[in-house]
Each structure stands twice: as C-alpha cells, then as structure tokens.
Amino acid sequence: MAPAAVHTRALLPIWADALSSGRKPFEVQRYKQVNHNAMKFGERGALVIVSSKGSNLVVAVARVSAVVRDADTSSLAGLVNSMDDEFLKGALRDYMREGTSFDVMHFSEIFDLRQLCLTWSALELKLDCKAPRNSGFPHVDLSWSGHVALQEILARSAVVKHRIEKDEILENPEELSVSVRT
Fold it and tell me: How many Å apart are CA 48 and CA 138, to the nearest integer?
C-alpha cells in the first residue's frame, strides 16, 4: 500500500486552535472570483500538517475523509450549523460572506500536536525533508522513512487523537456538506 500524500496548511490562530482541538473537523477554502482548485490533491487518507500563522509550531495533523468542491454558500449552511461554538460560527459566516464558491475538506481524524511543542525545523529533521510553508496546500515530498517517522509522531501518547464520527463517513461526499457532526 502506498503511503498517504502529505501536504501542509498554515491557518490563522483561531482556526488552527479550533481544528487542533477537534471543534472544526474540516477546512474551507474560499474563492472570491475563480476556483483555483487548491484542494485538488484531496483524496481520502491524505494527511494535512497544520501550523498556526505567525508561529513556528506544528499544531496538528489531519486525515482527509472527503472533499466537496465548488460548493456555494447556501449548501454550506449545515456545515456552519454543525459547529457548537457560536464565535466560530460567526467567524466562519464572515469568512464565507466574501466568497463566491468554496472547497471543503472533511477530516476523519485530527491529531492534536500542541502538547509536543514541535517546531517546523524539528519536524523537518525528524521527517528528513524540507516542508514548504507557502500558501495553499503545498505537497511535502517524504521518503518511506519520513512516512514512518510521521506515523511514530502521531502514535505518541502525548498526542490527542480526535475521531470524527459522520455516520460511518457517508459514501456521497455531497451529503457531507450538510450533515457533519462532531
């Protein structure tokens, strides 16, 4: 079995914290005019290494369960309403207000790495790679030993693992946009 694709994503601190804690088990990419297909890599099982913008720390790794592409604001109402935190709901509505279309990546597992205080440079050393930190979802080119090292990090006892239950991960990703539960 081939190792999962690995990508990085830098999020604003509010979203990095919400994702790490499992309160936001998805990532939304907003497009103001043209869909640039930032989530084209998104396939079930891919991993996203998440950092908080303005910080040198890696805060989480999330496993992709599904991607919904080219959704409009009205089709994401259920996603917004699935969030328990009213402040996050308002912030997500504000973010979506400026978009014409959206891609949504749903996660089946989120590994909260905040307790490890893992810096990008330490992670790069452990994975024997250079992790790109530009915008979007840049790909991380890992060797087999890098994939093994990443799995070892995720298996540490200090890592909090959030499993996202979505009625056994619905087969139709279109349905996920309106029925996500945490």
Answer: 10
Question: Is residue 39 within 8 Å of residue 130, measured between CB atoms?
Answer: no
Contact yes or no for 116/159 (Cβ under 8 A): yes
Contact 24, 12 (CB under 8 A): no
Low-confidence residues of the chain: pLDDT under 50? 167-182
Choose among 24, 27, 32: nearest CA to 89: 24
Q: Cα–Cα distance between 176 and 173 in angstroms, integer?
A: 5
Task: Measure the CA–CA gap between 71 and 102, rounded to whole angstroms.
Answer: 5
Query: What is d(CA 129, CA 80) in angstroms, rounded to the nearest whole number?
Result: 36
d(CA 65, CA 82): 17
So what's the pLDDT on residue 32?
81
Contact 163, 63 (CB under 8 A): no
**What is the tens place of the pLDDT at every residue in 12-29?**
999 999 999 999 999 988
Global pTM value: 0.83
pLDDT at 34: 66
d(CA 85, CA 108): 20
